[in-house]
Amino acid sequence: MSLVSTSDPTAAVRTENLCRYYPMGESLIRAVDGISLSIGRGEFVALLGQSGSGKSTLLNLLAGLDRPTSGSVLVRGRDLAKMSSEDLARYRRSDVGMVFQAFHLIPSMTITENVELPMRFAEIERSERTQRARQSLEQVGLGHRLGHRPSELSGGEQQRVSLARALVNHPKLLLADEPTGNLDSRTGEDILNLIRDLSFRLGMTVVMVTHERALAGRFAQRLIFLGDGKLVSQEALA
Amino acid sequence: MTGYDLFELAVRNLRQSKLRNGLTTVGISVGVASLVAMLSLGVGLQQLATRRLAGSGLFDTVFVTSKQDFRGMDREDDQKTGHPEQEPLLDQPAREQMQRLKYVTEVEPEVRVMGEVLYDGQTHFGFVTGLPMSARENEAFDNVQGKFFSGPAAEEVILLNDFAKELNPKDPKQLIGKEITLRYGERQALPAESTGRPQLSGAETAGTNNDDNFGFSVVRKTQALKVVGIIQEEPYGGMRAVSRGRIFLPVDLTEKLNMAQFTDMRSSLRGAGKTYMTLTVRVKDPGKVSEVQDAINKMGFRTFSIFDATKSLRRFFTVLDLFLGIFGSLALAVATLAIINTLVMAVLERRREIGIMKAIGASDGDVKRLFFTEAGAMGFFGGLLGIALGFAIGKAINVGTGIYLHRHQLPAEAVWILPPWLIGAAVAFSILVSLLAGLYPASRAARLDPVQTLKYE
Fold first, then answer.
1. So what's the ipTM on this one?
2. Residue B171: beta bridge partners?
3. Contacts of residue B9 in chain A, CB cutoff 8 Å?
């Protein structure tokens, strides 16, 4: 598969000379340093690199959780760098779904309530919320545990809940930050299988941060290698 | 996020730390209770004072006398008047004119005559005074044994307790419903042949101006009266001339009986027919007393009223309420700090949760509103609890005051009154204060960087 051009107007996400620097004392940490890339619609991309290479920072910039120091992140023609915080919140709740290594579920809520939460922010009707949360949980194979709290579930099940929550608002872009990092290899594989299936079924673009080269090679269509905040190389997989 | 969702999430969050949020809410309720108790005490005291002043019957009354009387008493206005005998007479037409003035509800003469009561074969001397029907509102009748007169000219009598004891030392209450006989002096015009005028007497002469210009006789008469009530103290607290009376009759009855008064001698000498020594003009609203007084002064009479004390009373109680409110608010100010502390702690504890919410689509405004709603909810529940607590404190104050007054042989008084407006105002104030207290923690929560909060948890 060929690499997607950075100037491709049909790309799902494009970055242009994207930089994110953090001041630390008198020095400047260049977490992301001039990255330009383009990710096609429906593509499954893995971001690889050592710790501190800028993978998660890049993912946060794509998610609109962080703002670039310079450069731009273009999603469907809109530059996230120029959006207001209110617009970024709207972008996060309607265009993006996020899955985290630590699952980040709210322990005091049942898994249904956790999955309903993004829909509360999107002001979706209560009855529709419950129905969609159930459907989303059934989609990830947890239809039988709707009233359970996260603490009552295994790590793999919690990550499935996290995935169900990410998908519930029908995002076009799924961002996964080390989704298998806290799981055993078999459970991790199950989760990635699920992500790949859903991505294929729903036509969703997936950007996954991982440091497991082999696992990424089995599921992603393209591997992007980062080092010291720079794009080192890309590898398209068959 | 919709208002309902905000409220539901806020209550859910508050329930996560039941003890801490519960204690903060109790803190707010103590503040509100203190405020409510203080302000209600202010309201209660104000109403008590107003009630007592209104009950004394002195602040809505103008006393009217003729400038022809009391001459030579060094009054400035009298000295200015060269010929006081040319001043208008305080007679029936003048009374009717006053009756027609705006805000005037009643114009009654003051009647005080000597009389004798015959009861159980004994004779008892006492002053007889006439009472208008408006006297029913006087505080002297708050604890009347029996009842007030059934009508303005009813042949009924109310006795002062001391006098009733004189009639029936063992059980004065027994007198109620019994009949007594009053012996009094009736004023009768002199026979026509001695004055050259037809004789008039009794009711026909009452209030006329030309009945007995040149003289009258005082004839002993008796009247049967039914005792309807017994009162402990004289009406009007001794300020009116009707005080010092011991036997009270409806004023219209005294006029109907044409009872001879001391002042009739003065009228006779003046040769101007029946005039009144004093007329008592009752005004609808204490605030209109000076207006009525001015109007009567213009008619050429001398007036006297106790200055409209309600105005200065209101000023006094506004200041009192202000200070009571400030003292009451001190506890609420402390509670405000507790809210700030609780919410700042909550922001610290829920950093990760705030980060998650932002990552899945919550805006800064959503987070701010959520903390704001939590503060408001604590204020709302604290306000309700505070009202209940304040109500209980107020009731305790009233019970305590009642016991204290009872020990001093005084009737119980409600010194603490919770007006309905204060309930709404206290809850609203509690919410407002809580929202103000939530401003800083809410904006701090909204400013949290989701990347940082998710990275370190």
1. 0.90
2. none
3. 120
